Amino acid sequence: MAAGYPPFFADQPIQIYEKIVSGKVRFPSHFGSDLKDLLRNLLQVDLTKRYGNLKAGVNDIKGHKWFASTDWISVFQKKIEAPFIPRCKGPGDTSNFDDYEEEALRI
């Protein structure tokens, strides 16, 4: 979300998988060191080193420097206003999502 595109992107699922297991991620130049560090820890291939999977669980993420100014109590109480609210015409409105070609059902 910070970049506007996913960290592992490719046309074919196998290519996405290969990028994920390689563990190599390139960040946009405007990303600060704290954000890069947080993302590296969240995208860690080794489950025993990945944030959210360690002994402290979610507290490793919530306690990270990048979230230093985040008031987690206000987040929990839903008092934080969203920085962006997309326009939505109704429950079935998908205009905020990418279009994908329909694939024929294979049986």
UniProtKB/TrEMBL annotation:
It comes from the Eukaryota. This is cAMP-dependent protein kinase 1. It comes from Pararge aegeria (speckled wood butterfly). Keywords: ATP-binding, Kinase, Nucleotide-binding, Serine/threonine-protein kinase, Transferase. The keyword ATP-binding applies. The lineage of its organism: Eukaryota, Metazoa, Ecdysozoa, Arthropoda, Hexapoda. One of its GO terms (molecular function) is cAMP-dependent protein kinase activity. GO terms for cellular component: cAMP-dependent protein kinase complex; cytosol; nucleus. The keyword ATP-binding applies. Residues 68-107 form the AGC-kinase C-terminal domain. InterPro entries: AGC-kinase_C, Kinase-like_dom_sf.
